[in-house]
Amino acid sequence: MSGTDETQQIYDLFIIGGGINGCGIARDASGRGLSVALAEMGDLASATSSSSTKLFHGGLRYLEYFEVRLVREALIEREVLLKAMPHISWPMRFVLPYHQDMRFENSTPTSRLLNTFMPWMKGRRPAWLIRLGLFMYDTLGGRQILPGTTTVDLKAGPEGAPLQDRFETAYEYSDCWVEDSRLVILNARDAEARGAQIMTRTKVLSCERNGGQWHVTVQDVNSGIVRNFRAKMLVNAGGPWVGDIIHGKIRSNSTEGVRLVRGSHIVTRKLYDHDKCYFFQGTDGRIIFAIPYEQDFTLIGTTDAEHSDPSIKPVCTDKERDYLLAFASDYFKQPVTQDDIVWTYSGVRPLYDDGASSATAATRDYTLKVDAQGGAPVLNVFGGKITTYRRLAESALEHIQKHFPKVKGTWTAGVPLPGGNFAVADVDRLIADLQKEFPFLTVFWARRLIRAYGSEASEVLGHVRDAVQLGRDFGATLTEAEVRWLMEREYAQTAEDVIWRRSKLGLRMTAEQVAALDQWMKDVRGEGAAEAAQ
Ligand SMILES: Cc1cc2nc3c(=O)[nH]c(=O)nc-3n(C[C@H](O)[C@H](O)[C@H](O)COP(=O)(O)OP(=O)(O)OC[C@H]3O[C@@H](n4cnc5c(N)ncnc54)[C@H](O)[C@@H]3O)c2cc1C
């Protein structure tokens, strides 16, 4: 398909994919002086990067697979990231109840070792091993902010209250929460502020090498308009589509493979009253989390299920839902039932295919491969975690640097994302200050705004004296002023972008309120009038 040659500019990098890896690389590369264009076929973070468990974590369970490099890097990253975005990320404590029935997944290197040398354990995960893992977890990452592991008497504290009486002891350790889709959007905004061109709802149709450059053809998904771009290097950060892009868009015969593993979560009404998370171990060797979510809910997940095709929208199947309900009900006094569920979501992990026997065992580490055969190079991104996105971007830039020798060095560690220029301990002060500046804000509302926009929250509201001046009220504290900010500054186009990826207000708004928001946004974008004329 040919289109109008939009620009004479030859970009240094053309990035396919507006998930966390594409946006993280775009930010890092623009900050180093490279010219960058990024195309995302849907909304930013519309695929895997809004469907994670939302943890900046080392991944305690990966220690059983001896993935020490990945765990160490991720543990160190937790605090680097927390300091750069204290609005959208915060420390959390995880309570791991111990029971002697807990078992390994059969195929982990640790379980094979124990089965050989301590066969009488019969696949059980002993308490000393968990303690050893937590000791490594505490020490590998060089913590400064996050507190270390403690032992909890479940008979005495609030942590034991919602759990069955058979759990008497637990270990408690630290990791961090992150608002995954907002992380992507803030990276995109920062990349744009440093010169990158970010294009959403823009699908890459084909990429061809020509005269040592890439000729990339894209289509605006809304208007159908086709445009051409030229770039010296291509970055394939297509997540679950990475393989499709290699074979279908670039038409390379690379043999690198991706393994698609679906993970589903259920969101229930709030199941308990304290603010800590649970780390539950199953008798099948898997683990799940139960996490306090959006103040009034509990998030439970995840599953590991093979997913055949990225174009099949991932949904939480009945089997996955029942598995999560049964798993959680094995721990909570009050069984968790279908009636408790208010929402479910699913994502597909684009894992590097390392030939592992099961989806649970497939590596969560990332792999970067440059293919320079035939002239212009392409960097293909496989796997990765939200937690390691910044380090992944740095590694990507190491590969890219070979083709752009004058590019500047690493810079992103310690540089805050938009709205994140304050100390981790100052969140409550910021909330109080916002309420002082805008006395009509409730605590819920002020907290929500600070947790989303940080030091930019008062700019989102603007110079107003009362709530009426914020314009139309869409419900659940969402107002016209905020929606305009999201449309003008954060690439939001539809109600879904606003209520599921810029916020989680979808949990609180009615179908009528969402429809009214969507219509209003269409009208602002000029689509409402066009629809009426048809
Ligand atoms: C259930 C689950 C739980 C997880 N939990 C955690 C966790 O707690 N902590 C953690 O650190 N990690 C977690 N992860 C891993 C993490 O979410 C992923 O590694 C990460 O989001 C992958 O980001 P990505 O940018 O590679 O892919 P994506 O976010 O999928 O982005 C790829 C983008 O490319 C776009 N694209 C594809 N083809 C084209 C094209 N032709 N043109 C234009 N755009 C295109 C897609 O639309 C998509 O938006 C979890 C993953 C899952 C599935």
Automatic annotation (TrEMBL):
InterPro entries: DAO_C (IPR031656), DAO_C_sf (IPR038299), FAD-dep_OxRdtase (IPR006076), FAD/NAD-bd_sf (IPR036188), G3P_DH_FAD-dep (IPR000447). One of its GO terms (molecular function) is glycerol-3-phosphate dehydrogenase (quinone) activity. Its cofactor is FAD. Its EC number is 1.1.5.3. It catalyses: a quinone + sn-glycerol 3-phosphate = dihydroxyacetone phosphate + a quinol. Residues 412-519 form the Alpha-glycerophosphate oxidase C-terminal domain. Keywords: FAD, Flavoprotein, Oxidoreductase. SUPFAM superfamilies: FAD-linked reductases, C-terminal domain, FAD/NAD(P)-binding domain. It holds the Pfam family DAO_C. It comes from the Bacteria. Residues 12-389 form the FAD dependent oxidoreductase domain. One of its GO terms (biological process) is glycerol-3-phosphate catabolic process. GO terms for cellular component: glycerol-3-phosphate dehydrogenase (FAD) complex. PANTHER family: GLYCEROL-3-PHOSPHATE DEHYDROGENASE, GLYCEROL-3-PHOSPHATE DEHYDROGENASE, MITOCHONDRIAL. Belongs to the FAD-dependent glycerol-3-phosphate dehydrogenase family. This is Glycerol-3-phosphate dehydrogenase. It comes from Donghicola mangrovi. The lineage of its organism: Bacteria, Pseudomonadati, Pseudomonadota, Alphaproteobacteria, Rhodobacterales.
